[in-house]
Amino acid sequence: MKNPTTTGRIFLFLITTLFFAGTSGITATFWEDSLISEDAQTDYNTAVNIANQDIDRALLYSKEALKKVNPKQEPLLNAKINQLMGDLYSKKNNLQPAINYYLISAKVFEKLNKKESLCKVYQQLGEVYYRNNYNLNKALEYYNKALELAVELNDESLAAEIYNRLGGVFFSRKNYDQAAAYFEDALKLWKKQNNKSGIAKAYNNIGEIARIKGEFKSALIYYNKSLEINKELNNIDLMAVNFENTGLVTAQKKEYIQALKYFQKAQELYNRTNDQEKKLEVLLEEANIYFALKKYPKAEKIYRSVYETALRQKRMTLTRDAAKGLSNILEKTNNSKEALQYYKIYSDLNDSINSEKQKATLTEMQSRFINSINEKEIAIKDKEIALLKSDKRIHRLELYLTIAGFIVFTIIAFLLVSRYRSLLKKERLISIKNSELHRAQKELMELEIKNKDADLANFALHIVEKNNFLKMISKELKAINKAPEDEKIKKINNLIFTVQQNLQIQKELEEFRSKVDSTYEGFFKRLKEKLPGITKNEERLCALLRLNLSSKEIAALNNTSVKAVEMSRYRLRKKCGLGNNENLCDFLEKI
Fold first, then answer.
1. Where are the domains of the chain?
2. How high is the pLDDT of residue 487?
3. Which of 54, 52, 106, 58 is nearest to 79 (CA)?
4. N or C terminus: which one in the chain shows less Cβ crowding within 10 Å?
5. pLDDT per residue as tens digits for the range 62-113
6. pLDDT-based confidence at 33, cuts 50/70/90?
7. Which positions ≥6 away from 168 have C-beta within 8 Å?
């Protein structure tokens, strides 16, 4: 029989070997991770320092920092890097990546209970959604979240800024009374803090509400108050805005000469700040004044200048507005042909802008849905990995502790219990995963139901594409005239006959028209009540316009020319009694 002391020493040696074998790898990994985290911090600091000078280089450093940071060991640094990435993509006007990075940082700040940082991220998310009316409902949601935190933190300065932003959201939604209430709340807090820049901003915004409501005298009072403060602060940007807004009021009052003076003052200040977009906006307003004064040559010259510059700078909205102005001018000067050309450009650009907005909204919804599923899958995988690591440690303990024979039965019992618990955890995780997948499938089905409204438009486009494709084949086959004479006629006749058979899409057109008639039955009824003399073809044109189809797509669908569609749209506008500044699609949407 072995000496008990000797047996104890052997067991102690085995346990000590096991401990150091396990911990040596952990220690090495700890130091390695520490060095990587320091590199991530350095890259992050560099990105912050150059963010305002070189956005692209700052993005490169931020991505490197994101690769190096350990989210579990450095969650705060990880959140800051993601927030910086959101800022950089926002500056590049690349909104969807900006939203994704902000959302990641928000979740981490929320887990860490960093309310100040979380409030800032919510405000930034609101800014992204508010920009260019990207998604006003989402902007409202995140601004309200930021406001709740600002009130909880008793940060009146931040609360005032958010009140002002909320006013902007409701202003964009044309809810002017609610917007005015938020602007007044912001003004009260800024006055309490003696924040002159904020006070000037609030006065200008309240003046805008008054201008929209037609309360011109009140609007001018607020603009002048704002202007006085901005002059005192030498705030050139806001001074230019004050002059521009004052010009808009005087123009609405038909004091055109005075309005021109204010616009020219605004133009001088925008030249100093080199704000290209605002310069073009003011030039458009000046052109509108000359149009109202019937100084058509002067107005046309400015419209053309704005159109060419905006087209070159790829500013679609300004290009569209300038094209519309040119169409109005040319129609007044009896140049109908060119007027129709610019109206077509205006119409196409308007269709493109609306289409881009719809695509951006759909992409944002899909991205959020996919991100949600990915996050759930990642969480489940993390738990599975943790369980696998736990199993690995158990197996290692089995190997080492089996050597110590005197505790073998105890270890076996321990392993059996551990394995049983592990199986229970796995089964629980599988159940959770199945539940999550079921919920995700349900959400996907709801998304498909929401998109069902687009089926009719997709069916129309399918007919268009098929018709165009077969026409292209017919055109190509006619080129067989260059084939040998003895084969040419026979091949041409056979192929043209085949193509003509394929072009018989009357059944599909009838099916499409039947779908249109059934889908828009109520719309057609209201349309006839509003326009008793409308024809069947004009009814279908109205339905296609409500589907947001472009003139080119409508022409292909009806097997006619784009010019014919434009003339039909032009006649329809006249029949609807629409003015030059009224949009046909908006008119139809309201019926």
1. 505-591
2. 76
3. 106
4. N
5. 999 999 888 888 999 999 999 999 999 998 888 889 999 999 999 999 999 9
6. very low
7. 130, 179, 205
Per-residue pLDDT tens digits for 271-300 = 998 888 899 999 999 999 999 999 999 999
* Close Cβ partners of 582 (under 8 Å, ≥ 6 residues apart): none
Distance CA 430, CA 484 (A): 70
Q: Which of 26-35, 286-295, 337-346, 578-587 is least confident? A: 26-35
- Distance of alpha carbon 260 from its chain centroid, rounded? 36
Pick the CATH number of 505-591 from 3.30.70.120, 3.40.50.150, 1.10.10.10, 3.20.20.70: 1.10.10.10
Determine whether 373 is exposed, middle or buried from the number of CB atoms within 10 Å of its CB (0-12, 13-18, 19+). middle
For 53, other C-beta atoms within 10 Å of its C-beta total 8
Alpha carbon distance 29, 411 (integer Å): 29
Dist CA 228 CA 237 (whole Å): 13
Q: What is the DSSP string of 337-398?
A: HHHHHHHHHHHHHHHHHHHHHHHHHHHHHHHHHHHHHHHHHHHHHHHHHHHHHHHHHHHHHH
338 half-sphere exposure, CB direction, 13 A CA radius: 12
Distance, CA of 546 to chain centre: 23
Rounded to 10 degrees, the C-alpha dihedral 102/105/111/116 comes to -80
Q: Cα angle at 275 between 270 and 276, to 5 degrees?
A: 110
What's the pTM value of the predicted model, to 2 decimals? 0.52
Distance, in Å, from the CA atom of 209 to the CA atom of 190, rounded to the nearest integer, reads 19
Per-residue DSSP letter, 335: -
**Tens digit of pLDDT for each residue in 186-226?**
999 999 999 999 999 999 999 999 999 999 999 999 999 99
For residue 29, give the nearest of 70, 62, 88 by alpha carbon.
Answer: 70
d(CA 184, CA 203): 9
Considering only CA atoms, which of 272, 201, 190 is closest in space to residue 230? 201
Helix, coil or strand: residue 524: helix
Rg (C-alpha) for the chain, rounded Å, is: 34
The per-residue pLDDT for range 86-97, each reduced to its tens digit, is 999 998 888 889
* Burial (CB count within 10 angstroms: exposed 0-12, middle 13-18, buried 19+), residue 431: exposed
Within the chain, what is the greatest distance between any pair of CA atoms?
120
Residue type for position 53: Q
DSSP of 19-71: HHHHHHHHHHHHHHHHHHHHHHHHHHHHHHHHTTT-HHHHHHHHHHHHHH--T
pLDDT over 70, % of the chain: 77
Return the closest-CA partner of residue 565 out of 542, 588, 533, 581. Answer: 542
Q: Could you tell me which residues come within 8 angstroms of residue 412 by beta carbon, excluding any fewer than 6 positions away?
A: none
